[in-house]
């Protein structure tokens, strides 16, 4: 299914996995893809090359999406390249080390929670004003079943982070959806909805 008009998607955490697959799918549907990565420049450039070989359009831009200044620079560079951003896929992974609760410090618990929510919060605040101005936008956040069901011992911090993300997405939908027609999803079936 081809997406109408020239849409631009900013996808975070794209070097591999869900992010890379999402970038490829959107590119095959005619979306210009901004691939954001933190450290793996080689994997990001390889993905850009694969998308271009398949007649897609993509660029790779490095930024830490937990850093407001770097996010602002990322948005500016993406808009310089393509003029606008229509779709945000907030997919940057949260690093964590599985550890039982009784052996975990507050900082070890809080680091993935803060990382997950700060990235989603800062990215949302950075892209939504222009989406409202252009009367079009899609906000997509990837979460995990760990938010609903413990998957393995030691996953408390990341499960809590993902549950927080799902709550955040619900409030974003409540506050922005009706006013700005910006639908939000927190699961993967969105690929069929775009």
Automatic annotation (TrEMBL):
It comes from the Bacteria. InterPro entries: NAD(P)-bd_dom_sf (IPR036291), SDR (IPR050259), SDR_fam (IPR002347). It holds the Pfam family adh_short. PANTHER family: 3-OXOACYL-(ACYL-CARRIER-PROTEIN) REDUCTASE (PTHR42879), 3-OXOACYL-[ACYL-CARRIER-PROTEIN] REDUCTASE FABG (PTHR42879:SF2). Belongs to the short-chain dehydrogenases/reductases (SDR) family. This is Short-chain dehydrogenase. It comes from Dictyobacter kobayashii.
């Amino acid at each position: 299914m081809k997406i109408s008009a020239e849409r631009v998607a900013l996808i975070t955490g794209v070097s591999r996995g869900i992010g890379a697959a999402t970038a490829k799918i959107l590119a095959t549907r005619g979306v210009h893809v901004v691939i954001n990565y933190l450290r793996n420049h080689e994997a990001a450039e390889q993905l850009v090359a694969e998308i271009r070989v398949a007649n897609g359009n993509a660029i790779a831009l490095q930024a830490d999406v937990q850093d407001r200044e770097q996010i602002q620079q990322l948005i500016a560079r993406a808009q310089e390249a393509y003029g606008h951003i229509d779709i945000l896929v907030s997919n940057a992974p949260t690093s964590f080390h599985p550890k039982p609760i009784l052996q975990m410090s507050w900082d070890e618990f809080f680091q993935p929670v803060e990382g997950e929510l700060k990235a989603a919060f800062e990215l949302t605040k950075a892209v939504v004003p222009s989406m409202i101005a252009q009367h079009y936008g899609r906000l997509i956040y990837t979460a995990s079943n760990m938010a609903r069901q413990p998957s393995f011992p030691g996953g408390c911090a990341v499960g809590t982070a993902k549950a927080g993300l799902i709550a955040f997405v619900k409030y974003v939908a409540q506050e922005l959806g009706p006013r700005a027609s910006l639908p939000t999803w927190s699961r993967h079936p969105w690929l069929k909805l775009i």
